[in-house]
Amino acid sequence: MATKEADPRWLAVLAQPDSPLLDLPKELRIEIWKYTFSDSHIIPSSFGRLRHNHCQACIDIANGNSGPLLWRRTFRPLRTSKQIYNEAHEMLMQSFTLHLGTPLGSPMRALIPWLASMNEHIKRLEWRVHMLAHNRMDWLASIAIIGAQFPNLEKLVIHAHMHAPERLDYRLFDSLYFALPIVRLKQRMPNLKLDFDLAYKSPVSTITSTSLGQITAADALKQHEEMIKDLVVDGVFVAPVLAQDLDRAAMERALFRCARVRGQIE
């Protein structure tokens, strides 16, 4: 029986101390590294995916683009020789975007131990989370870990996937739980550029709003996102979030006020 040929993408790169690359001027090699590694997106996984099995939003992301590169494949060029490693390693570490996921019920599982050895180098992070009613505390703890694990982070993008509500106003308290740790993270890392987007785990066409009637799922998500953005910069909300003793009643008052301004409740 014929032996199946190994996929060359998974083959180890043998040391090449006489690589033709080393015959090029260093300035040219640096330009090659910039071209090779600039804006790379990497996932610390041997499977090449970050997705929950029952999340349509994750499936849509996977089908919509080529996705991040595997960790091993991205680092292959660095294994050519020690000289190439020394030249290109720092450039790669400072240029790529790391993709992490938080599987349900296991916050920050993707922060495997060996990642901790390079966390100070990571500047850009995209983080996919699944927010459900039973794992709100996981979310609060996980985003706090982000600030501690990546002290030099410059950009964070959060992709939050959740169940679609029967009514838009049922998601009001989700806005509170989403905004609370973001406010704390922004205080800890004031120069961090933070963005997020929301999506529903299962496809839905319309959602009912008490004040807006039937609206599309896209409009409902936009309303939810805008509510969170309002809360994060609302001084009436921020003050009790950052207070030594968390004042939930004050946070809820700020939430309801923002919801009334946006017409989400009467």
Summarize the structure in words.
The protein has 266 residues and is an alpha/beta fold. The protein has helices spanning 26-37, 56-64, 71-75, 82-95, 136-149, 172-188, 217-233, 235-242, 248-261, and strands spanning 41-43, 69-70, 97-102, 124-131, 155-162, 193-200, 206-209, 213-216. The protein has one domain (22-261). Helix 5 links the parallel strand 4 (124-131) and strand 5 (155-162). Helix 1 crosses helix 4 (82-95) and helix 5 (136-149) packs parallel to helix 6 (172-188). The radius of gyration is 22 Å and the shape is elongated. The model is unreliable at 1-14 (pLDDT under 50).
List the helices and strands and how they pair.
Elements: H1 26-37, E1 41-43, H2 56-64, E2 69-70, H3 71-75, H4 82-95, E3 97-102, E4 124-131, H5 136-149, E5 155-162, H6 172-188, E6 193-200, E7 206-209, E8 213-216, H7 217-233, H8 235-242, H9 248-261
Parallel strand pairs: 1-2, 1-3, 3-4, 4-5, 5-6
Antiparallel strand pairs: 7-8
Helix pairs in contact: 1-4, 5-6, 6-7, 6-9, 8-9
Observed structural traits:
single chain; 9 helices; AN11006-like; alpha/beta; 266 residues
The major β-sheet equals: 6 strands, parallel
Residue-averaged pLDDT, rounded?
A: 77
User: Which percent range fits the helix content?
Assistant: 40-55%
Please give the radius of gyration in angstroms: 22 Å
Distance between the termini: 73 Å
- Could you name the ranges where pLDDT drops below 50 across 5 or more consecutive residues? 1-14
Order of helices and strands: HEHEHHEEHEHEEEHHH
Instruction: Assign an overall shape.
Output: elongated
Share in β-strands: 15-25%
Number of helices: 9
The spatial strand order of the largest sheet comes to 2-1-3-4-5-6
Decide which structural class fits the backbone. Answer: alpha/beta
- DSSP, total strands: 8
Number of spatially distinct domains: 1
InterPro entries: AN11006-like
